[in-house]
Give the backbone structure.
Amino acid sequence: MEHYYQPEIECASREQIRAWQDERLVKQVHHVYKNVPYYRNLMDKKGVTPDDIHSVDDLHKLPFLTKDDLREAYPYGLLAVPLKDAVRIQSTSGTTGRRVVAFYTQHDIDLWDECCARAIVAAGGTNEDVVHVCYGYGLFTGGPGLNGGSHKVGSLTLPMSSGNTDRQIQFMCDLGSTILCCTPSYAAYLAETICERGLQDKIKLKAGIFGAEAWTQEMRRDIEEKLGIKAYDIYGLTEISGPGVSFECSEQTGMHINEDHFIAEIIDPATGEVLPDGEKGELVFTSITKEAFPLLRYRTKDICVLSHEKCSCGRTHVKMTKPMGRSDDMLIVKGVNVFPSQIETVLLNKGYPANYQIIVTRVNNSDVLEVQVEMTPEMFSDTVSAMDVRAKELRDALKSMLGIYAKITLVAPKTITRSEGKAVRIIDKRNLY
Ligand code: DLL
């Protein structure tokens, strides 16, 4: 029996979806113009007023919003309701200087839960399931989002959060978890550990809902084989609510975007021109039902393709491909957002020259972040044990900046290749896209 499946919305006609979007967009534009001075300024600068927006056809008249706007308006500059009406804050994993906070009213939490519930149902979830959530809880949206969705479906929800693999596996066996929700890299690690311990027969998993980072079809097959499950992709970003902005159905040929809540556009990242279906470009979202933190034409930096082709599952909402890369230099390592500028800040603060290289690899399906750092000639004359102390200090400082450990390799002066143009700081060997 399927619970919380909403065919009247998810399989609505294109005309119906369009009618919802037209009406909600107009209302949303008035809401932000009236309540958010930051938006009013942006729109005034572009010479557009709420009265110019009559339908989705007018969307292109609105200015784009970027992560830089969110940082400039930090913390409360884009809050569109009185503080007393906001009930929750979530945040991106970026740290100092890069943090983005998003606000929710109870209505916003309800619709976010609804989006995640749809993802769980699309993966075969019902109120008979035991949903094992080991995305992180706290400021990260993964845990709270899937937790809320699972409640809405009526499944028995295990709020495990991340880490403590022994306990994860024990609960999985003892409680008979049937749907696993976590990052694909953690799913791969759990799968490997379960196989090593010969526990495949003790688990009852049937599906996994994995997202928050890029993962390949090979990784999907590996996890599916080891755990004996079907693995579904789920996409989202904190700014637009969190997981559940889009999700895979049984056809697994892209993720359906919850179009009754979010309007998607694909633009040329260089010119901002809107591109037609089937063309690759930057994904832009407009949230048309959120109250506390409604973003209009938010540039995600994720590069993908949209398709309105008919889906055999019956859902009519547009599908997006897996992101094929990003138009900025943000890396996602172990599910955490890492910007080279954060690493550079730590190095410069500790007296190192700005010659470094970031190398990301994937070993046994787990990300490894290595930072190769050039020493100054004075540092290079240190004893080996003094260098070990330096490397440890740097490792700790990076951990407190990024939230994850990096392998530090100190290298001799002038060994990192100098660039004549834009420095190549990142070598990503994971072949994720
Ligand atoms: O990662 C929300 C989320 C949680 C999604 C749990 C899915 C599951 P942020 O930390 O704000 O939010 O990171 C958002 O992660 O712009 C993409 O670049 C990337 N991303 C998210 N889902 C996927 C996915 C959460 N399925 C950023 N495939 C986004 C590839 C993904 N990249």
About this structure: The two ends are 37 Å apart (CA to CA). The longest strand covers residues 366-374.
